[in-house]
Amino acid sequence: MPLTAAAADARVTAHPAGHPADAGALRRQDPELAEVLAGEARRQAEGLQLSAAENFVSPAVLAALGSALANKYAEGYPGARHHGGCALADTAERIATDRATALFGAAHANVQPHSGSAAVLAAYAALLRPGDTVLALALTRGGHLTHGSPANFSGRWFHFVPYGPDPATGLIDCDRVRALARAHRPKAIVCGSISYPRHLDYPAFRAIADETGAFLVADAAHPIGLVAGGVAPSPVPYADVVCATTHKVLRGPRGGMLLCGTELAARVDRAVFPFTQGGAQMHTIAAKAVAFGEAATRAYAGYARRVVANARTLAAALADRGLAVVTGGTDTHLVTADPAPLGPDGREARIRLAAAGIVLDTCALPAGPGRGLRLGTAAVTTQGMGEPEMERIAGLLTRALDPAADETVSTRTRAAVRELTARFPPYQGVDQGP
Ligand SMILES: Cc1ncc(COP(=O)(O)O)c(C=O)c1O
């Protein structure tokens, strides 16, 4: 029920006693919004969350997000802030950067970017001038908006030359990338994608960058959690700058991060603050520190292994049921598949699957104008699902996509999804790390 302005005022003026992130306080003060949040928690728990960009963070990460650091302003860097009272904010940020450098074997980490896009913007700001040429995976083939979309600062301020995967195999062909780099002499080469399911050949990208005098920027938003868990190659020894998100498989708060060597550290830091951002979000930085701590554990390495095993099983089960799985499988948490052989294209399939409680995204395919489906196993693996459940998910998904499926089939699939997710609640009795 909506609050009257006066009632809301009375309740927020004197803060109710208790922990700052007390959900009961929110319900008492603002039942309307509390109901929205409870509904979202139900939606996440009752559906199958197969978006490759999402996960369930641990209660400890949520606690840091809802902590007193949410109140703190801290422009600048530890030891050099523009605000007073930053001693503990400094400690939190130092813990975060120390954990990030140790986790990824990097000389320098900047944990302030508010998002993955902000990290990429800062990487470009550190290395490039407006008008410079940049080579990146084509947006129509799995590049991110920040890799040259005309709707984004990247496409407006830089001259992007796109490379694509081999249309027949879906694999990135480094010989083709080298030929383009020789022809266009880019100032930077970006390797990274929102939907490429295979490991990237970072040494090959490094060699191309060296040969053509380009910086190498690895946008590792997707694989970085697998790198932390030791199940994917690291871009850190090869790229001049690594950009990443701290959510997705890494299972931290929504945010970004940059890793680089000591030579570029000062340029990267200045590119984040004061060039592209203002005050750091200290509660998020504390939550990043918690997530890095979790990601350094043996439990997390086991989780990362299960994420990949689940994705491989899911890819094979989808292929068995007739979907065209891009590159024939996956090395990562991510499966890209074309549902067209079953009837619907990616867009239609996403709508039908949403009706059945199966949440995922559409994505570009290596050839043609059609959209495919992008699935990820990070969230369902956090819930404790394993390979038998991946087989079950593939069965439910193809049942929902069957062109002959009527209303009854959809209702039954939805019920089966609920029955499956009820056995794996995201926040009860689940291995969330240490
Ligand atoms: C490769 C890549 N780069 C950048 C981003 C941007 O991250 P954000 O949405 O946090 O800005 C994403 C997000 O999905 C991504 O996959």
From TrEMBL:
<comment type="subunit">
    <text>Homodimer.</text>
</comment>
<comment type="similarity">
    <text>Belongs to the SHMT family.</text>
</comment>
<comment type="pathway">
    <text>Amino-acid biosynthesis; glycine biosynthesis; glycine from L-serine: step 1/1.</text>
</comment>
<dbReference type="InterPro" id="IPR049943">
    <property type="entry name" value="Ser_HO-MeTrfase-like"/>
</dbReference>
<dbReference type="InterPro" id="IPR015422">
    <property type="entry name" value="PyrdxlP-dep_Trfase_small"/>
</dbReference>
<feature type="region of interest" description="Disordered">
    <location>
        <begin position="1"/>
        <end position="24"/>
    </location>
</feature>
<keyword id="KW-0963">Cytoplasm</keyword>
<keyword id="KW-0554">One-carbon metabolism</keyword>
<comment type="pathway">
    <text>One-carbon metabolism; tetrahydrofolate interconversion.</text>
</comment>
<keyword id="KW-0663">Pyridoxal phosphate</keyword>
<feature type="binding site">
    <location>
        <begin position="143"/>
        <end position="145"/>
    </location>
    <ligand>
        <name>(6S)-5,6,7,8-tetrahydrofolate</name>
    </ligand>
</feature>
<dbReference type="InterPro" id="IPR039429">
    <property type="entry name" value="SHMT-like_dom"/>
</dbReference>
<dbReference type="InterPro" id="IPR015424">
    <property type="entry name" value="PyrdxlP-dep_Trfase"/>
</dbReference>
<keyword id="KW-0028">Amino-acid biosynthesis</keyword>
<dbReference type="InterPro" id="IPR001085">
    <property type="entry name" value="Ser_HO-MeTrfase"/>
</dbReference>
<dbReference type="Pfam" id="PF00464">
    <property type="entry name" value="SHMT"/>
</dbReference>
<keyword id="KW-0808">Transferase</keyword>
<comment type="function">
    <text>Catalyzes the reversible interconversion of serine and glycine with tetrahydrofolate (THF) serving as the one-carbon carrier. This reaction serves as the major source of one-carbon groups required for the biosynthesis of purines, thymidylate, methionine, and other important biomolecules. Also exhibits THF-independent aldolase activity toward beta-hydroxyamino acids, producing glycine and aldehydes, via a retro-aldol mechanism.</text>
</comment>
<dbReference type="InterPro" id="IPR015421">
    <property type="entry name" value="PyrdxlP-dep_Trfase_major"/>
</dbReference>
<feature type="binding site">
    <location>
        <position position="263"/>
    </location>
    <ligand>
        <name>(6S)-5,6,7,8-tetrahydrofolate</name>
    </ligand>
</feature>
<feature type="binding site">
    <location>
        <position position="139"/>
    </location>
    <ligand>
        <name>(6S)-5,6,7,8-tetrahydrofolate</name>
    </ligand>
</feature>
<feature type="modified residue" description="N6-(pyridoxal phosphate)lysine">
    <location>
        <position position="248"/>
    </location>
</feature>
<feature type="site" description="Plays an important role in substrate specificity">
    <location>
        <position position="247"/>
    </location>
</feature>
<feature type="domain" description="Serine hydroxymethyltransferase-like">
    <location>
        <begin position="27"/>
        <end position="395"/>
    </location>
</feature>
<protein>
    <recommendedName>
        <fullName>Serine hydroxymethyltransferase</fullName>
        <ecNumber>2.1.2.1</ecNumber>
    </recommendedName>
</protein>
